[in-house]
Amino acid sequence: MMLTDKRALITGADSGIGQATAELFAREGADVAITYHTDEAGIRETTARVEAAGRRAVVLQLDVGDPAAVNAAYDRIGSELGTLDILVANAGQAMSGMPVAEMDDTVLERILRVNLMGPLFCARPFIGMRRSQGGAGKIVFISSVAQHLPTPESAPYGMSKAGLGSLCRSLSRELAADRINVNNVAPGLIETPMTADRFEQTEVLDQSLERIPWHRAGQPEEIAKAILYLASGASDYVTGHTLVVDGGLTMQWGGA
Question: What is this structure's pTM?
């Protein structure tokens, strides 16, 4: 197993990529702290999957955009689970249909706070935890191909993900001396509750799939495997990198 007796925090683990990652990490030998915002049924399902794999789950309700709440969550994780080895900053919020000229400031600030500042808020106490143990550890941010591609009518989302790519690179340099790896996974179109609306609109879905060379959406489990690689010892010489997992979408963009 790739994560035997490791301890990981996975934010936004109530569904989709976060849920798949928690389950995979448990199967690979890790105990996990898992957070959710409002989906209590989803986090119960994640907990059941982790426990079915024979590992422990510590469940926390958390708004990652609230730094005080994040710090309190780490205090609880430290007392109930112990010092973390891995952070997967997955929690995020989508948006669409809002041109810049008509943008609601509340939406703008919320997207940036959750998608960009939230991962930073989660990284800060993790760094302190690891330094108290002499360093080492893995940080994996979950970004999006939106960090590379235009996002009309959802500019704050693209801004937040592009900023996350920059945070990954900057933080990887800051933490190199501590031997803390910092990397980023940028999924393409993945079939999750966050993208459910697109899958319910046949014409919109067909247009999306046409842009993807593999002509299919990805599954959360496929992204979880990429995260596992970056969270494990197999990636010890990888840092400051964004791993794009998109069926070729970014490569194909604009060429169809």
Answer: 0.95
CA dist 212 → 184, 191, 198, 246, 250 (Å): 21, 14, 15, 8, 8
Dihedral of the alpha carbons of 19, 17, 135, 165, in degrees to the nearest 10: -160
Strands 31-36 and 137-142 come out as unpaired
Structure tokens at 217: 């959406």
Give catalytic residue positions. 157
Q: How do the pLDDT tens digits run along the chain, 256 residues long?
A: 999 999 999 999 999 999 999 999 999 999 999 999 999 999 999 999 999 999 999 999 999 999 999 999 999 999 999 999 999 999 999 998 999 999 999 999 999 999 999 999 999 999 999 999 999 999 999 999 999 999 999 999 999 999 999 999 999 999 999 999 999 999 999 998 877 777 777 877 888 898 899 999 999 999 999 999 999 999 999 999 999 999 999 988 765 4
Domain count across the chain: 1
Whether residue 182 contacts residue 137, with contact meaning beta carbons closer than 8 Å, is answered with no
* 206 within domain boundaries: no
Residue range of the domain that includes 95: 7-189+218-245
* CATH for 13: 3.40.50.720
Which whole-number Å values give the CA distances from 241 to 70, 161, 194, 248, in the listed order?
Answer: 25, 14, 25, 18
Which sign does the torsion angle of CA 38, 44, 45, 47 carry? positive
- Whether 164 is covered by a domain: the verdict is yes
Quick check: is 22 in a domain? yes
Whether residue 111 is contained in a domain is answered as yes
**CA 34, CA 56: separation in Å to the nearest integer?**
10
Cβ–Cβ under 8 Å, residues 92 and 12: yes
